[in-house]
Task: structure prediction
Amino acid sequence: SSTVFTQHFQNVHTKSQDNPKILITGSLGQLGFGLAKVMRQRYGKNNVILSDIIKPNKSVYETGPFIYADILDFKNLQEIVVTHQIDSIVHFSALLSAIGEANIPLAMKVNIEGVHNIFELCRQYNLRLFFPSTIGAFGPDSPRNPTPDLTIQRPRTIYGVSKVHGELLGEYYHHKFGLDFRCLRFPGIISADTNPGGGTTDYAVHIFHDAVSTKKFECFLQPDTRLPMMYIDDCLNSIVQFMEYSCENLSMRTYNVNAMSFTPAELVEEVKKHVPDLEVTYKPDERQAIADSWPECFDDSKARSEWGWSHKYDLKELCNVMFKYLMPKN
Ligand code: AKB
Result:
């Protein structure tokens, strides 16, 4: 569709007739490669630049541009924006909830200092910014079922604290400097071909891999721990749809988005329809306390009514699509 997002880029670039250029930071995490695939189809292969500090497989370079970008190095970021004519950033670099607790100084550096660099960069060069937030931006004092967009946010992880900081800073930069800041709070994201990397919702990805490999799954959360979740395709579509939506019609800059909510026991029941002999044990660890402080169910009614958000995958469809990808073909 001819979209406002595309229009924005066309307006920005009418002088040189260039196409839009989007930089994705932390792109070797769970979401970057998938988002690039969707965006490259819409905006052109060379207009979406993946970046990270890790050297990826050769195959990543074959799909389109990949560059080194260290979000802690401001000059490196400036050079990238100028050299590649970047006009929009999707900022995925972050340490997730569990891994953040295991390395708080690094989480402060990446999730707070890194975010400061990104905000300043976007202000200096007038870039549009997408910043993902999370259910982890809420805490034990927030209403948990459902959790609205605007409510008490007192998270108890460094990940959550840094995400609230990013949300507030983004809204401040928007009001103070006119920065086109857009933020979605995501539930746990479930994907087949990329790993989540250190979160509290990761069990809901591990179960699928274990079900097809060993048929034994040890869950690090209790069976009745309810958390909001989403299949990756819904997540990526929400980003593109939200970024393309006309800025003037948004009443907020930060929205909850959700697809489903389930407990480990409910997920196991559905997974067992595909792998009936799956053996499951429960061994809660330090991630249980994090999960217990998070929303059980996300109220995303504002995203649905204001910019038309809707999910495609419920628990049943999630299991169908995950096993379609992961089950060995004979
Ligand atoms: C985590 O578990 O830390 C993330 C999240 C919900 O933000 N998946």
Residues 1-5, 8-17 have pLDDT under 50 and may be disordered. Residues 96 and 199 are 5 Å apart (CA to CA). Residues 96-97, 134-136, 159, 188, 196, 199-201 surround 2-amino-3-ketobutyric acid (CB under 6 Å).
